[in-house]
Amino acid sequence: MEISVGQTNSSDNLADKLLFHPLDNIEDVEEFYTAINRSSLTKALSEERPYTYWTIELYDKKNGIRGGGGLGVLAADTRRVAEEQSVPFVLVTPFYPSEQHQHYEYRNGESLNYTSHEPVDYSQYGFDFLDTVNIKAGGQICSLDVVEKILGSTRILCITEPGFGELYSGESGGDHRLYQEVALGFGGYQALKLAGLKPAIMQLNEVATFFAALARLDELASNGMDFYEAVVYTRKHTLYTNHTLVQAAEADFSYDQFERYVFPNLKSPAVRKWLSDKFDNGRIRLSTVTIEIAELRSGVSKLHARVANYHDLAGNKVKFKAVTNGIDIPTWTSEAITDFLEEKGIIDKFYLPAADYEEKIDQVTATEIKSLKSKARAELNQVLSHRVDQYGNHPVVEDDALIYDFKRRFVDYKRPWLPFTDPARIAEILEKHNIHYFLAGRVHEGDSVMSGRLKNLLTIVDQNPILKRRVHYLPDYDEELGRALSVGANVSINTPIVGLEACGTSWMKDIINLGILISTHDGGVADASSDSYLNISGSSEHQEVESLYQRMEEAANAWHSDFDLEYIIKTELKAYLPVISGTRMLKDYLDFLF
User: Fold this and answer.
1) What single-letter DSSP state applies at residue 147?
2) 314 lies in the same domain as 388
3) Is residue 17 domain-shared with residue 50, that is, in the same domain?
4) DSSP string, 220-274
5) Structure confidence by residue, pLDDT tens digits, 117-141
6) Is the pLDDT of residue 340 over 60?
7) Contact present, 149 and 155 (Cβ < 8 Å)
8) What residues does 324 pair with on adjacent strands?
């Protein structure tokens, strides 16, 4: 029996419980999603009233859009999960007509670090042109193309124009960045109307998407709704999701900039007055107004929701609901490992933990783990065959060697340099246990501090013959490389300063691919206890470094001890399988919203 979105099955009294159906019968629906109370919203999800997900960044090269990091990867995973579960879902984002690639070479003590730029055409990736919409920016009318790609129950809806620029181009508080954000908000909202869609909910991912909710408020207020009712309605139907405790992406803009880029797009004098009142000494922080326009707020891990320190205009601390990030398991997991987890009955057809998943995990053997990782190593080697390290060489790893990796955005608080605090000590560990260590991550353009740290790190590597042979920095980090390392590496290193990582998802990909995680107790890792993985402990950095080296040795020894390997991998899976699933994440959002 097939039930479509919004259809009522009176015999089961599910009118107020069913929001969508992921498969083809009522048992499947109840298995996945059994009790939604949607009384807090005026409409359920439908094709015409979808879940709208706003993001300045999407990382989905299959569909032609290259992001800059975790925010974009998460956006792509969220849409994929929505498609798998037949949720009416629209992702609204810019299509950047140019993308950036990183190049790095280290030779004779000198580093050559530069970027190249590649034009991208949306028509090559199956996007259809709908029409154009106009916004006002910088004293002129700007025409934006609206393009879309429909994927099952979901669609990617983009605004673009030839001069739109690259992701995160210009200064974070500069005119061009404000133009991009205004174009996404006001232009993207017009694009929704052009496609005949009305958002049931608007999820604002980071503050760069604030202007989408502002556009909705302005439409309601300018079309005759009482202003205060329009504010209440907008707030009630808007979720602000904060993704980072380090607000590198947050902008601070002047009143003059808003006069030139924002206010010309507002039709309602009341909305303009409301927004004008949010300025403090002629400046405005987007987090302040995003908090004011969204009644629903979420953080991306349990720890993040507890420690996020934001206040409203009255000075009250804002509460965030914890919805820990998840990943689209089939995208990031070796096919052999996914099949194994399904055949063993560890995960179900929704990629959620099966009812008796812990018992099924206990049946996994070290022989099976090693066999699966051996197959996955072949996938990694295939990718490495067309990637180069800091010396321009294709890395070659012996079949009997172990692979450790650090694959994350290169920012100071993630501390990619931490394992190299004592070069002689890490060289001894790598040599003793036949380990190759891979570093992969992008330094944001303009981050001179991190560029300097990367150069210093590679100088340390170059000056030690063991490290020079065993440590490989892979530039131009992307989805392909990230997946390949998750699939093929034996051990993953995650070293953020505790309290600064909002969630992270790279570690999730390592665990689901049967790798050993070495990490500080931060971000989403802290959703479970610190004995669920190989924890880096210590009250000082010196103690953390010593703990890290001990854990690196422990992980290497475990790969040569069936008992230890089984214990670590099984402990990780039992603790984090309920956390990792992107289906769980989407379900948690729907529980929260409806």
Assistant:
1) E
2) no
3) no
4) HHHTT--HHHHHHHHHHTEEEE---SS-TT--EEEHHHHHHHTGGG---HHHHHH
5) 899 999 999 999 999 999 999 999 9
6) yes
7) yes
8) none
Burial of residue 516 (CB within 10 Å: 0-12, 13-18, 19+) is buried
State how far the alpha carbon of 137 is from the alpha carbons of 5, 179, 183, in Å: 39, 7, 9
Q: Which of 170, 71, 164, 66 is nearest to 445 (CA)?
A: 170
**Residue entry with tokens 């530069």:** 114
Can you tell me the mean pLDDT for 355-366? 97
What gap in Å lies between CA 13 and CA 488, rounded to an integer? 48
244 and 389 inside one domain: no
Residues 484, 474 contacting (CB under 8 angstroms):
no
Spatial CB neighbours of 256, under 8 Å, sequence gap ≥ 6: 282
If you average pLDDT over every residue of the chain, what do you get?
90
Q: How far apart are the first and last CA of the chain?
A: 25
Q: 215: which residues sit within 8 A by CB, 6+ positions away?
A: 185, 186, 188, 189, 190, 265
Cα 147 from Cα 257, distance rounded (Å): 28
> Which residue among 323, 357, 390 closes a domain?
323
Strand segments, DSSP code E, in 416-537 are 435-440, 471-474, 491-494, 516-519, 534-535
- Burial letters 137-154, b for 16+ CB under 10 A, else e: beeeebebbbbbbeeebb
Q: CA 402 to CA 513: how far, in whole Å?
A: 15
Residue 506 has pLDDT above 60, yes or no: yes
Question: Where do we find the tokens 């405790």?
Answer: 245
Tell me the average pLDDT across 4-15.
33
Rounded to two decimals, what is the model's pTM?
Answer: 0.91
Structure token pair of residue 531: 């004995």
Q: What is the pLDDT of residues 565-588, one digit of tens each?
A: 999 999 999 999 999 999 999 999
3-state secondary structure 96-108: CCEEEEEEEEEEC
pLDDT for the residue 22: 35
Residue 247's pLDDT band (boundaries 50, 70, 90)?
A: low
Residues 6+ apart with CB under 8 A from 303: 499, 522, 523, 524, 526, 527
User: Do 522 and 456 have their domain in common?
Assistant: yes
Residues 480 and 559 both lie in one domain:
yes
pLDDT exceeds 70 at position 111? yes
> Residue 40: its pLDDT value, please?
38
| H-helix segments, 308-422 | 329-332, 335-343, 357-361, 366-384
Query: What number is the average pLDDT over the span 249-265?
Result: 91
